[in-house]
Amino acid sequence: MIATCGSARRSLARAFADRDAGPVLLFVEGSAGLGKTHLLRELAELPETPDVARLWWRCGAEGGQPEEDEGWREPTLLLVDDVHRADEDELRRLRRVLAGLEPGSAAAVTYRPEELPVPGMPLGGSAMTYPFRLTVLGDRLAPWDEERVRRAAEEVLGESCTAEAVSALRERTGGVPRAVVDLLAMLREQRPAFTGTAAEVAAAGVPTRLAELVLSRTYALSPAHRPLVWAAAVLDGPAARDELIAVAGLGAVPGSDALLR
Q1: Which of 38, 92, 157, 173 gives 179 a disulfide partner, CB atoms 3.0 to 4.6 angstroms apart?
Q2: Which helix (H) or strand (E) element contains residue 171?
Q3: How far apart are CA 184 and CA 168, in angstroms?
Q4: Which tens digits make up the pLDDT trace of 54-76?
Q5: Can you tell me the distance from the alpha carbon of 115 to that of 193, in angstroms, rounded to the nearest whole number?
Q6: Cα separations (Å) of 91 from 41, 42, 55, 109, 131?
Q7: Gene3D superfamilies, alphabetically (predicted)?
Q8: 28 phi and psi angles, rounded to 5 deg
């Protein structure tokens, strides 16, 4: 259900159009739940590349890297998931592999920008020297707009999908595809059956994955800074700096410091 745009497909297909074509490296940026892993699965199934080897590299996972002796001479599509989880040793090896991509090969590398140790540097803090023959591209995944949420809701809820429900779904999830899908699953299974009201969407609660992500990030902050997050949740909308600090109960200096974190 988490559909993705065709730009990434077109970018990588370019590398496989000719066995002598220069390699392509595609960085895919997206916050949690926007569909990065789903996009990689779609790219792995590119119908125009039946003779290209697929290799998965799941960063930070035990056994997630390709074997050291796996061949890289044949045309290869390397699918690198969650590079923000990689440690320094893994990043060093990945950089070597990407720099050595052969003609007719490509790599797609996904990451959460908000979790990079060095902002804007998915492969680590030192700038990578990209080979001249390597084409480097970037793609950024975005939340769904209301029309896309409506189509997903119609697919799951059928006749119970109302304009009121779609608007509430978009507001509650921010259009994050994974959160939309999870919340729709909750509404589909609820009893009495969902009738399409915003009140029912609100009463369904927060999807487990979303709740755990928010809590883990909140408690990764120091205890002194957490009240600012709680204040933002209470205000539930855009707020000025001084209003946030006042609701959080922090003084001017601690509040300003918390905002910078």
Answers
A1: 173
A2: helix 163-173
A3: 11
A4: 899 999 998 888 876 555 667 88
A5: 39
A6: 22, 24, 17, 12, 17
A7: P-loop containing nucleotide triphosphate hydrolases
A8: -120, 115
Interval 172-217: pLDDT, tens: 898 999 999 999 999 999 888 899 999 999 999 888 888 888 888 8
Q: How far apart are CA 15 and CA 221, in angstroms?
A: 42
Please, which pLDDT band fits residue 6 given cuts at 50, 70 and 90?
Answer: low
Under 8 Å between Cβ of 90 and 60? yes
- Residue 95 in this model has a pLDDT that exceeds 80: yes
Tokens read off for 108: 């797609």
Domain ranges of the chain: 7-140, 146-210, 221-260
Residue owning tokens 């959080």: 248
Paired with 55 in beta bridges are 78
Q: For residue 108, list its beta bridge partners.
A: 26, 79
* The amino acid at 48: E
Residues 6+ apart with CB under 8 A from 169: 149, 153, 180, 183, 184, 201
Residue of 211, 212, 198 lying closest to 153 (CA atoms): 198
In sequence order, the β-bridge partners of residue 110 are 28
CB atoms within 10 A of CB 175: 19
Q: Give per-residue pLDDT as tens, 229-254.
A: 888 777 777 778 788 788 878 877 77
Q: Answer yes or no: are the C-beta atoms of 102 and 73 closer than 8 Å.
A: yes
Q: What is the dihedral of CA 72, 73, 78, 84, to 10 degrees?
A: 50
Architecture of the domain delimited by 7-140: 3-Layer(aba) Sandwich (3.40)
The tokens describing 69, both together, are 């002796």
Can you tell me the distance from the alpha carbon of 84 to that of 116, in angstroms, rounded to the nearest whole number?
Answer: 5
Q: Tell me the C-alpha distance between 99 and 66, whole Å.
A: 16
Residue type, 1: M
